[in-house]
Amino acid sequence: MKQFNKLLFVCAAGILPALATAKTSEAVQARKMIDKVNQHWQAENKAEVRSFWDNAVYHTGNMEAYFLTGNQDYLNYTTTWAEHNQWKGAKSDNKAEWKYSYGETDEYVLFGDYQICFQTYADLYQIAPDDYKIRRAKEVMEYQMSTPNNDYWWWSDALYMAMPVMTKMYKITGNLKYLDKLYEYITYSDSIMFDKEENLYYRDAKYIYPKHKTVNGKKDFWARGDAWVVAGLAKVLQDMPAEYKHHEFFVNKFRQMAKAVAAIQQPEGYWTRSMIDPEFAPGPETSGTALFMYGIMWGINNGYLDKPTYMPVIEKAWKYLSETAVQKDGTVGYVQPIGEKAIPGQVINAESTANFGVGAFLLAACEYVRYLESSDAAALADRSYWCKLAYDMAAPVLSNMAKGELQKNMILEVSPTWDGRNKKVAYMETFGRLMAGIAPWLTLPDDDSEEGKMRKQLREWALASYKNAVDPQSPDYLLWRKEGQTLVDAAYVAESFLRAYDALWMPLDETTKKRYVEEFQQLRRIDPPYTNWLLFSSTIESFLAKAGAQFDEYRINSTIRKVEEWYTGDGWYSDGPTFAFDYYSSYVFHPMYLETLQAMKDAKVRSRIDYAKYYDRALVRAQKYSLILERFISPEGTFPVFGRSIPYRMATMQPLALMAWYQKLPAGVSNAQVRCALTAVMKRMFATGHNFNEGGFLTIGFTGKQPNIADWYTNNGSLYMTTLSFLPLGLPASHPFWTDAAQEWTSVKAWNEKPFPKDHAWKDQIRTWDLF
């Protein structure tokens, strides 16, 4: 294993001189500025103020600062504000008087400026789920959606105030109507105030060109108005599922607006109040600039915008914000007062500040820190540790298999009670299970970081290994044509393709693809046992459907029906007709059931089964089960050791890792909680280094070499199931999963006399019937 240590050390140590860059220093300074600005604001302003838009915008920034820094004072400040407002916006309970024209009194319940508070209430609900926090939000938004009206968002600000409320409430409730109405409402907004030539919004219908012009006869796009939209689109895309039917509409709009906005940035880094007529109202303006920076920076961090194109925009904007807008005492200056347009002659200076301007700055600064720290192994110590461990497991396998030497060089181990089957099954187990675990990581784009170099190397080895796996002339041609066990691990190979379709399946040459299709199809010779094995067949067949090959619909649909029969409730599946208390709900049921259903959705197969509704129901079950797994993790980083196949180690945590990767964690379980909990388990399990044999391959055991716990089918290739806990590596290093401040997981809170969310039974709410 020494041959890999040099590259591993780069990620593990996190202290190489190359990492001690100006970028690291800038992140430290940016964090200090965030705290200075926010602490100054909170010291000067009480939390007990109304829930109208200006205050609510501040709290969207304050919550982001809390997630990034973990400062409990920030959370307490926002909680006090929410409690002061009784978790409401406008407070009227008489629906007959509810309005959505402009107004600041309690009957303007449907006015977006009184709905933005629901964004923060939803965030607080996700931290500690209590129904009272979102009860009013559900009442208001679901009443609004029940009306035939679609003209609720008649001014551009609403696309920040109210649009993200819809996606946050969708995320909590799973009610697709939130997304459909979101699309309906923004379509109306576009019809009255969107300029398709400029890809920018007028503040509202009063400002449409040529009816309204600047004094110089130009179109008048108000910076803060368009900035609300760009920032709102970023927030929407953060919570909108990629498979939603109108997702591409929002992606395209976001990209088009970002391009238009970037083109009219001033050389000093800010945007003037009238964006394409700087002379109309010249000089800097902070709130619009900060919101633009936040939206564009989020787009870069999450892969929607091209880094080389847009980072110069970010760097100029940050230079303005950090050197001009923020004053020595922490005041955020040059904020245009509340209004709706660029006003010639209006004085805006270093003393011009506002709550919403502070919130906008916090959003931009926090997103910038996530970017700065994303390539800093020291700042992201948990991710660095995961990278090291993943590479440690993968490199000996893939470096050998890429050369056709895995079967020659792997130091093979089998159970003391081995059942006598062909030992070559171990090589497919090793490869398939490893790739299913690291596939999401390999989907990330190449970069020049040390992690990026490792990832690129693994992907190159993996693609060569995939080719060798089905090439009859290769010494590493796998055991496709013998033994029933082949069905199991062919399913993990198929699962790796499903998890990284564009990165691992699409680059394969046509001959190799054809060979995989043939190998997968010939596995129909195997009659799977009446257990979780049915899902191995469905995973393979659903992949064939997604890939456009001939597939067996009956094998898929009969598996789905059986899995439904075997659901026992509260997130648990029975492995066949008889319940077994083990982790097969982790190893197979939740992941492969969801992936089977998703692949059938992707393939747009129409059959008797409503795959979309089945998927939604299965997802809720997986969320419940992942919540249980998170609670299983003790304060010491251990979890209960029981059941067969326990040498699969960290594979027990696969559904929790899967929900984190999908960004579908249940309320009460945060990104940071899961990261910290899984890291604690990994370190507890792998700290001694005794999990590997002298060739660098996993050895049979749980926390070391413990061959006595092997089952009759166990070999050390089986153990690469443990990589299934690495799925969150598919989230970029700038993602909040990695950059949010460390948080205690549930058992740590519970065993240390701290508040923690109570658990409760979950029941299926989604009912399905055959489509025909």
Tell me the β content.
under 5%
Summing up helix and strand content along with how strands pair, one would put the structural category as mainly alpha
Overall shape: it is globular
Number of strands: 4
CATH topology grouping of the largest domain: Glycosyltransferase
Spatial sequence of strands, sheet with the most strands: 1-2
The mean pLDDT is 95
**Main beta-sheet strand count, sense and barrel state:** 2 strands, antiparallel
Helix content: 40-55%
Name the CATH class of the largest domain. Answer: Mainly Alpha
Helix count, DSSP H or I runs of 4 or more residues: 29
Number of domains: 2
Runs with pLDDT <50, length 5+?
A: 1-20
Pfam families: DUF2264, Glyco_hydro_88
Domain DUF2264: 382-745
Organism: Bacteroides gallinaceum
Keywords: Hydrolase, Signal
Give descriptors for this structure.
single chain; 772 residues; mainly alpha; Glycosyltransferase; two-stranded antiparallel ribbon; 29 helices; globular
Detailed description of the structure:
α2 runs antiparallel to α14 and α25 crosses α26. The chain is globular. The chain is built from 29 helices and four strands. The termini are far apart. It has two domains: 357 residues, Glycosyltransferase (Alpha/alpha barrel), CATH 1.50.10.10; 370 residues, Glycosyltransferase (Alpha/alpha barrel). It is mostly helical and 772 residues long. It holds the Pfam family Glyco_hydro_88. This is DUF2264 domain-containing protein.
